[in-house]
Amino acid sequence: MAYFEGAKMTAGYGDGPDIISSCSITANRGEIVAILGPNGAGKSTAMKAMLGLLKLKSGTVTLNGEDISKINPQDRVKKGISFVPQTRNVFAELTVRENLEIGGFLTEGSLENKIESIYSLFPILSEKKSQIVGQLSGGQRQQVALGRALMSDPSVLMLDEPTAGVSPIVMDELFEHIIKVKKTNVAVIMVEQNAKQALSISDRGYVLVTGQNKFEGSGNDLLEDPEVRRSFLGA
Q1: pLDDT tier at 1 (50, 70, 90 boundaries)?
Q2: Whole-prediction pTM value?
Q3: Exposed/middle/buried for residue 67 (C-beta within 10 Å: 0-12, 13-18, 19+)
Q4: Helix (H/G/I), strand (E/B), else coil: 209
Q5: Which of 215, 225, 207, 85 is nearest to 145 (CA)?
Q6: pLDDT digits (tens, 9 = 90+) for 90-112
Q7: 139 near 172, Cβ under 8 Å?
Q8: How far is CA 196 from CA 42, 94, 223, in A?
Q9: Which is nearest to 206 in space by CA: 54, 79, 41?
Q10: What CA dihedral angle connects 60, 63, 69 and 74, to 10 degrees?
Q11: Rounded to whole angstroms, how far apart are CA atoms 63 and 59?
Q12: Average pLDDT over residues 150-177
């Protein structure tokens, strides 16, 4: 059994049509899982369903063997799931350190030790700790968002389009930081438009089409799959 799993999830918004149908996503600790697909494929909807932001019509979400399908998003956070949305993921008017302190409201033990561990993971945040986050570059703000999400000691980190709007150089840097996070034994699940680059660092990937699993496999296998390359990787 996978550590974190959304199994055969079907969900939509209000009385509208289903956006995902029998969609399944799994992740284990210490691995990166990419959710890919064209616009409107249901990628973010699947993530919202696993977070509890969207009610399932059918299917289950389990964490370490426990069914959390009926648990609200706040309680899922307390159980170890952290989320970095694509936008509005930092407090731009506060300093780097203040953002981390807010992220640590659930932290047990020494807040100072936890902040220092985040500085070790993202050294630029230590250099900029007194700077207002709104004055930072896009890549640095994303590091603040990652650091703040990690302050709660999550076992699962979910990222929605972490490289949206950044340059290719910054994208590569952010992916390097995501690899660092994985090495702390966190399960990382990311929705990402930069499919080729995301698969290159992912242990596994899922390609969704019209809300259903179309392809899945290791990052390398999906990169080498002729149909995936032709349809989704521009090759």
Answers
A1: confident
A2: 0.91
A3: exposed
A4: strand
A5: 85
A6: 999 999 999 999 988 766 778 89
A7: no
A8: 19, 35, 7
A9: 41
A10: -150
A11: 14
A12: 90
